[in-house]
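pinned: reference chain
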Amino acid sequence: MPSKTADRLTDAALLSIREHGYAGTSMQDLLRGTGVSSSSMYHFFPGGKEELVASAVRRAGLTAAAQIADVLERYELTEAIAIIFDAAAHEMEANDFTLGCPIGVPATEAPADSVPIQKAVAEVFTAWADAYTTALRASGVGSEQATMLGRFIVAAYEGSVTLARATRTTQPYHDAKTIVTTQITR
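pinned: its C-alpha cells
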C-alpha cells in the first residue's frame, strides 16, 4: 500500500512534469514543496527522479486507462470518444493551455536510455490503446482494424495535447475527435 509521503511526491512530480517538463522538474523543488526529506524520498524511490517519474507515469496513466475503459463501457463508442476528447479540451482550456500530458511529456523528454520511464510510458500507452481496441472490437470493428485504430486514437490524443498547447486553442482536440469518429462510422 502506497504511503501518503510517496503519494505526495508522486502528485507533486506529476504536476511539475505537466507544468515544467521532465528537465524542468527539480527534485529539490519537489522536496521543498512537499516538505519531504531527501532520505524519505530515497526510501520510497531509491532510483531518485527517474524512479519517481516512472511511478508517477504508471499511476496516473493506469488510472486514466481505467477511466477511459469506464467511459467506453458506459456510452456508445463515438459518444464515448467525443466525451473523452471534449473533457481533455476542457481541461486544457481551464488550465490556460499550461499543462502537458503527464505521460506524453516524459515520453518525449526523459533520457532515451531511461528504461524505467520507457517501460512505464509503454505500459500506459498500451493500456490506453487496449481500452480503445476492446471497445472497437465490441462494436463490431475487425480485430486488426480495431488494433490499428486503438493506437491511432492514442496518437491523435497525444498530438492534440501538443498542438493545443502550442497554438493555445482546443481546435486540435475537436479535429481529432471528428476524424476518429468518422473513421469508426465508416
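why pinned: The mean pLDDT is 94. Residues 9 and 34 are 7 Å apart (CA to CA).
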